[in-house]
Amino acid sequence: MSVFFRAALGFVILFFSPAVFALNILMYHHVANDTPPSTSTRVDVFQEHLDYLQDHHEVVDLLWAIEEIQAGRELPENAVAITFDDAYRNIYTTAWPMLQEADFPFTLFTATFAVDQGSRLMMTWDMHREMHAAGVTILNHSHRHEYLVRSERYDDAWLNDAMTSIRTAQQRLEEELGTTLPKVLAYPYGEYNDLLQAALREEGYELAFGQHSGGVGEFSDWMALPRYAAGGIYANLNTLRPKLRSRPLPVEFPLVDPVTNNRTPELRVRVLENLDVGWHAVQCFSGGGEPLPTQLEDGWLITQTESPLREGRQRYNCTAPSRSQSGVYYWLSQQWLINQGPADR
């Protein structure tokens, strides 16, 4: 990259080492052969994932790895963390023994209402306590697993309902496990907005996880951390491998509310210089794979769909190739929730 090109783009200088400061996180729901295909990873496929991770990656504890990144300390090369959402019983009966055999740490995000109701699909509290005693990290996934930010009015009543669900889950987890837990949340359905993030920070939450794709780096938005889905159509190891090798695209995340009435939202992020990123070849796509007009202008990466997005959860994905490693890409995902109502603020 020439001096002229750097000056023209106005890059912020940041020499980013992906082996030191990068983490990819996998997200699972069911590990079973008889559960809904869209959220399930077949048992044989899950074993393929574990075998591949054993041979090519270092599986690390989620919270430890993020603390290391935030402190600027070195992570193992090709670090990956494993997470599960909802606390389905097959995680206890099927996935956990397989993970124990592989000696892999993992994190479970529990939605507590279904557990309290004694659903046959969910782990019991005794199962939770057994996992917790064995060192499994168990964290908050809300109480009723509702759509926290799908509302026609973002008023005090809405925010109180959302925070009550989160507070109730934290209380139930701590009561049943008999310990104080870190204030960490996985958003139900991965959906959030700026008001909920602000309320969580005031409540003492320091980390929150979505369901958009990408890796974690020292420049990440700690209240909207991405994870790669590893179930349903995303369980195929052939398509999962390059994601596990990917690196987070070095950008300063914008102060943008992902909940919007605008069906053609613009994503504008300031890029951070990294000499390994092939910025000249950056491409952005809609979640459906439609190429998006993309430009680099005065140190900003700018992309925006020309085709109106449908209501509901959508995303933009941007990738740029590594200059030093063939087949390795830097990855950025921005989630949008195209609101179905007037969204008074």
Automatic annotation (TrEMBL):
CDD domains: CE4_DAC_u4_5s (cd10973). It comes from the Bacteria. Its EC number is 3.-.-.-. Its main location: secreted. InterPro entries: Glyco_hydro/deAcase_b/a-brl (IPR011330), NODB_dom (IPR002509), Polysacch_Deacetylase (IPR051398). PROSITE patterns: NODB. GO terms for molecular function: hydrolase activity. Keywords: Hydrolase, Signal. Residues 78-345 form the NodB homology domain. It is found in: Secreted. Gene3D superfamilies: Glycoside hydrolase/deacetylase (3.20.20.370). This is Polysaccharide deacetylase family protein. The lineage of its organism: Bacteria, Pseudomonadati, Pseudomonadota, Gammaproteobacteria, Oceanospirillales.
